[in-house]
Amino acid sequence: MNLGHVDQIAKAVLYEGYMLYPYRPSSVKNRQRWNFGVLYPQAYREAQGGIDACSLRTECLVCGTGGSLLEVRLRFLQLQVRHSQCDSVLGAGVTPDGWQEAVEREVVIPAFTLAGAVAHTITHSFQFPEHTLIDVDPENGGEIVRCQSELRGEVEIVAQQIHKNLFKVTVDVRNTSTIEANNPTRDSVLLQSLVSMHAVLGVSGGEFVSLLDPPTNLQEVARQCQNIGVWPVLVGDANQRDTLLASPIILYDYPQIAPESAGDLFDGTEIDEILSLRIMTLTDEEKREIRGSDERARQILERTDSMPAEQFMKLHGAIRGLRPLKESMP
After folding, report:
1. Can you name the residues that pair with 57 across neighbouring β-strands?
2. Between the CA of residue 87 and those of 53, 248, 293, 294, what are the distances in Å?
3. Dihedrals φ, ψ of 113, to 5°?
4. Is this model's pTM higher than 0.90 or not?
5. Are the beta carbons of 148 and 77 closer than 8 angstroms?
6. Max CA separation in the chain (angstroms)
7. Which of helix, strand or coil describes residue 274?
8. Which of 4, 134, 263, 316 lies 20 to 30 angstroms, CA to CA, from 157?
């Protein structure tokens, strides 16, 4: 699995919507986050009339043999509540329940052969227990208390041999967490949700088939692949087919991070120059709130404030390639 190339793209997917401009708790825009790739507990989905997802499915095609090895990694965020002495002065955006932060999670399913997945369904359960951590606040010397709720999930993987050297792989992921509250709020349920859920698949001894641009002879079987909540695209160097990203947002094959980008901005359809300019217009009070609310938001602020002029100019635009203009015929 080509994790070196996929990591930047996967991180961008992971934190899509984590913190939206203007990156401070009192902003109305930040009170409704996590629009992509959220798997809620099943009980909450049922209470909401089936509107919110509690599972996802990705199906992809693999050209290989029964001995080809497949590896599946699940990546998502687990939210935790942070309480600190500065919460009382951060404004209305910090609820009585505290400020929600994110912890990166990864679940690695042991490598298996395609023949093994054809013979029987591979089931893997995972759990992250309830946990409380107390730290010292470097800003004021007080306590920072971070609380995590128990989180449970399950993944099932099965393969179907379509032709001699062609397999369809199905990956189902479910949130199996149990809700204790009778009338849970969305904020409380997010603490037991798989947030920004996506999967990374890798194969050795075979290659994935692009579902966006499949070969002519595989177009019909590619159309029959069912993807719910995610869409698989090829990642890595162009023409490599050993790594697939099942993304909760729409991407093309071989997506790339612009080399001019100085770092994550976490905003949907982000445009680095515009967001950076708007960060520069924040007041001292707004910047103080950002520094006290979230570590990743603080890094955005410090990076933007210290950005050299030459780096900022690179955000204005870039030419990726030139080609001669054809002369019009007389």
Report:
1. 172, 228
2. 31, 32, 8, 11
3. -85, 155
4. no
5. no
6. 79
7. helix
8. 4
